[in-house]
Amino acid sequence: MSKINFTPAVPVLTYERVVEQIEEAILSGTLEPGQHLPSERELVVQFSVSRPTVREALRVLQSRGLIASRPGVRTGPEVLPLSGHALERSFSTLARVAALSLSDLVQFRIVLESSACRLAASLHTEEQLETMSSAVARMEAAVHDADLFNRADLDFHAAVWEASRNLLLQTSGQAVSSAILGLMNDRISVAPDPRGAMEESAASDRALFEAIAAGNSPAAGAHAQQAIADHFKQYLDDRGRKALHALATNEDSTEHSAPPA
Amino acid sequence: MSKINFTPAVPVLTYERVVEQIEEAILSGTLEPGQHLPSERELVVQFSVSRPTVREALRVLQSRGLIASRPGVRTGPEVLPLSGHALERSFSTLARVAALSLSDLVQFRIVLESSACRLAASLHTEEQLETMSSAVARMEAAVHDADLFNRADLDFHAAVWEASRNLLLQTSGQAVSSAILGLMNDRISVAPDPRGAMEESAASDRALFEAIAAGNSPAAGAHAQQAIADHFKQYLDDRGRKALHALATNEDSTEHSAPPA
DNA sequence: ACACGTTGGAAGGTCAGACCAGTGACAAAA
DNA sequence: TTTTGTCACTGGTCTGACCTTCCAACGTGT
Fold first, then answer.
1. DSSP label at residue B8
2. Which of A119, A130, B9, B204 is the most buried (most CB within 10 A)?
């Protein structure tokens, strides 16, 4: 009556064991970002495997964004700081294959960013508020220069993400934003009315900033949702628009300060 | 004074070009899940590169969850259906390194799952409602059997994710849930009071189900948030608890139906 | 005619050894 | 001191080989 459950005796691939050991060393902090792995030939000796095996392992780690290697550098492959790069690629891949899901992607971003804004309103520091304030000011001053404007816009949103104090939310949000940008660039390239769009965008970011600064979480969340929905409305399908009502914080909370039409 | 700008003549790695071509074929649908790539030796001929190069490319695609290869099979590497596996790994990796972020992970799940419940309340189909209903009933009938109970619990949540009608939300949510489970297993293994916990869990899922069935999005979102916060309260840090108030739908919307204490 | 064991070839996994094109530190030359 | 050239070593790629595993076709025996 003993409940022994034998586990399948799956063969363990050699390169996988190399991956595991190196990954463990990186994730556990034994190898910190900026440090370097031994050279491939040295790893061959240490793991007692052949160079192709080591290289396959390094390729896998590379594709996971954990290391980077360049030919000629004498210090060996470098351990990278952990980034959302792999996460972003996963989002893009999923978005591309899941049929017609730019709408889903936008909806997802609304969920993430409005939550981040709620959190930011509640948890922000003075310093982060400074950063946001300066970024919004730079946006308003740069409606004539799309390049400067976009940079300030990115800075503002980055500050909001950071103020949410949730690294996972921050990384996922930025990854999904990048994924949206990437897919949009594949379909449409220019905005019809740059100047007007920038002014609208700056105004909505200003309103969002003030809600965050005031610590008004529901208003901040509502503003973020409205801003994203306006900005990407051409990409939302019927279901996406219907979903907005379900996501609205409460029956009428989006109306206590009308955003610019 | 001409403005010629030479672009950097970066070397393009051979295996990367192989990856790009195969990935493009898969993502564009030319190669569908279940189909097979040519064998490694055949790819060597088609790409005019050596076998190690082909193998490195295949390893990368494999680590991205796009293909799978087994020795001996005569049909070549198989194209896999796209899954959130890579996404889940990304979440787990991020969660593991971002210091002490089980709290962040739980917070993130609250954001995703409460949004999914809001959407599910608004967009569910009759069939999905059936599935949820049956799953909740099975949970209530299985408080004596942890195994059966957990399976029904998973079924219920899977149905909710599916009813959100957002594949990205669904995949991310399930990925983050799996990541939480994985990390919890590393830290603590048994619940102190299985029976009581199961009854509580069943009751809160029942309440959640009724809110969804009634199409009450705010209530569904609030129930989900409360349920997850209760279930993982031991993993939430101070900031996480404070954040709950910011995420609460509105000043008092969580109180119009008191969840079980 | 059917079922069953055998077997050969093809697949992926691994290895050893080699060459090339970069890199970077150091020494020689201006 | 600054520039230039050298050279050892790196990663990128290739060749060719061997092993184990798998599967399909074959040839048995019933």
1. P
2. A119
Average of pLDDT values for A46-74? 92
Best mutation target among B24, B94, B162, B164 (most A Cβ atoms within 10 Å) is: B94
- pLDDT reported for residue B254: 38
Closest chain B residue by Cα to residue A69: B13
Task: Give the residue, A146 or B56, on which the prediction is more confident.
Answer: B56
Interface contact B168-A218, CB threshold 8 A: no
What burial class does residue A133 get, using C-beta atoms within 10 Å of its C-beta: 0-12 exposed, 13-18 middle, 19+ buried?
Answer: middle
pTM: 0.79
Looking at the structure, give the CATH architecture of the domain made up of residues B85-255: Up-down Bundle (1.20)
Under 8 Å between Cβ of A162 and A169 = no
CA atoms within 13 A on the CB side of B39: 7
pLDDT at A252 over 60: no
What distance in Å separates residue B117's CA from the closest CA in chain A?
Answer: 9
Half-sphere exposure of A100 (CA within 13 A, CB side): 7
CATH code for the part of the protein at B14-79: 1.10.10.10
Measure CA of the first residue to CA of the last residue in chain A; give whole Å: 71
CA distance to partner chain B, nearest, from residue A97 (Å): 6
Which nucleotide does the CA of A62 lie closest to, via C1'? D11
**What single-letter DSSP state applies at residue A79?**
E
- Asked whether the beta carbons of residue A217 and residue B246 sit closer than 8 angstroms, the reply is yes
Contact A123/B at CB under 8 A = yes
Q: What is the pLDDT of residue B191?
A: 58
Determine the average pLDDT of the residues in A129-144.
Answer: 92
**Residue A82 pLDDT:** 83
- Residues forming beta bridges with residue A36, ordered by sequence position: A78
CATH 1.10.10.10, chain B: domain bounds = 14-79
In chain A, residues under CATH classification 1.20.120.530 are 85-255
Beta-bridge partners for B68? B78
Of B113 and A100, more confident = B113
Following CA atoms A29, A30, A32, A36 in sequence, which dihedral angle do they give, to the nearest 10 degrees? Answer: -150
pLDDT along chain B (261 residues), means of 10: 65 91 92 92 93 94 92 90 83 72 86 94 93 93 86 93 90 86 69 74 93 92 91 81 75 40 36
Q: So what's the pLDDT on residue A51?
A: 93
B62 and B23 Cβ atoms separated by less than 8 Å: no
Q: Which residues of A touch B239 (CB under 8 A)?
A: 123, 165
